[in-house]
């Protein structure tokens, strides 16, 4: 029939714009991801910061899939899961902090090469996946923007997660590039002082240790 109902196959533009605005506001608030990006950009340069951003993006993709398929909800519903992720994430951060403190001289990737980029990327993704707050964030934040429409909820969650992932990579990538450029300029001044050249690595170690303590003190939200 000429006036037949045609179901919508995507989320409305106003909802997507509101979602993007809320996402950007969250990104601009200082948090663990921002600190993680800047600390690695300071020790590995712009490409290191970009590698962290891509690692966060990969974690966002995984969390989106888990949320859209309902797996994340089942994991979050198991009481011990929050503490297991929290303790595992804190232990991983402390391990990275120990390495950064004892090997603080690795400034630019000119010495460590592409293998270091892969390592930074992998550590960034794993760090995000071991943060129970990230899992809960996806479970709580994304459903707020699901519309009552013909589009399946799982598809809407996947679309919202995809938009968030792209925005996250762009934002954190730009942050890493800028932070890395500033770090490279600083490292040129510190190159003539071996003691000062270790400063970025020491700062990174302290940042990672602080993030670990923050994660250890995080308590499971109560409904």
Protein described:
- α1 packs parallel to α7 and α2 packs across α5.
- This protein has helices spanning 13-28, 32-68, 71-77, 80-102, 109-129, 132-141, 153-190, 194-197, 199-216.
- The model is unreliable at 1-7 and 106-112 (pLDDT under 50).
- The protein has 9 helices and no strands.
- Helices cover 78% and strands 0% of the residues.
- It has 223 residues and is an all-alpha fold.
The unreliable regions are: 1-7, 106-112
Class per helix and strand makeup: mainly alpha
Q: Give the helix tally.
A: 9
Nearest-integer average pLDDT: 80
Overall 3D form: globular
List descriptors.
single chain, 223 residues, mainly alpha, 0% strand, disordered N terminus
Task: Provide the fold topology.
Blueprint lengths: L12 H16 L3 H37 L2 H7 L2 H23 L6 H21 L2 H10 L11 H38 L3 H4 L1 H18 L7
Quick rundown:
The protein is built from nine helices and no strands. It is mainly α and 223 residues long.
């Amino acid at each position: 029939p000429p006036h037949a109902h045609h179901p919508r196959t995507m989320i409305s533009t106003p909802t997507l714009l509101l979602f993007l605005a809320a996402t950007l506001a969250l990104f601009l608030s200082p948090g663990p991801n921002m600190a993680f990006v800047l600390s690695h950009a300071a020790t590995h340069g712009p490409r290191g910061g970009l590698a962290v951003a891509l690692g966060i993006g990969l974690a966002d993709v995984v969390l989106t899939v888990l949320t859209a398929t309902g797996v994340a909800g089942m994991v979050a519903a198991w009481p011990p899961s929050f503490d297991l992720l929290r303790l595992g994430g804190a232990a991983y951060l402390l391990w990275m902090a120990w390495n950064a403190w004892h090997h603080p001289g690795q400034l630019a990737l000119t010495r460590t090469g592409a293998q270091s980029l892969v390592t930074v990327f992998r550590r960034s993704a794993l760090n995000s996946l071991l943060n129970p707050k990230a899992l809960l964030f996806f479970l709580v934040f994304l459903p707020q923007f699901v519309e009552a429409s013909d589009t399946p909820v799982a598809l809407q969650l996947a679309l919202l997660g995809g938009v968030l992932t792209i925005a996250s990579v762009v934002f954190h990538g730009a942050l890493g590039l800028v932070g890395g450029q500033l770090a490279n300029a600083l490292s040129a001044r510190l190159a003539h002082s071996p003691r000062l050249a270790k400063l970025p690595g020491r700062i990174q170690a302290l940042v990672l240790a602080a993030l670990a303590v923050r994660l250890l003190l995080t308590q499971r939200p109560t409904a």
